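Morning, I've got a small favour to ask if you have a moment. I'm working through a protein record and want to make sense of it properly. The fold is given in discrete form, as structure tokens running alongside the sequence. Can you walk me through what the tokens say about the fold? Thanks so much in advance, here it is:
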Amino acid sequence: MTYRPLQPELVPCRSCKALIFFATVTKTGKKIPMDPEAVDDGNIVLSPDCRDADVLGPGEASTFPGRKYRSHFATCPDAKGWRRKRGIPEPASTKEHSGAW
């Protein structure tokens, strides 16, 4: 049986159709697409309500207790098409993204 905290709203990825959900990165305030299953080698720890995400670097500890998860960017075959180069502002039309990728 797979452990999950409270169940977030799952939506299909607009590229690969896998079920994902969105969480807000605590350090940046940006939305991040998440795979819903906990994994041993993940680098993201979710708040108990699955709304906030601590993205952990090597040796970093989370402010949230619980299992680790993975961003959908790590598993989506079309992830490169969704990534933005650092320093390039996000278009206004996607800043309030509320749907699936």
Remarks:
- Confidence is low (pLDDT under 50) at residues 94-98.
- The helical segments are 92-95.
- The two ends are 27 Å apart (CA to CA).
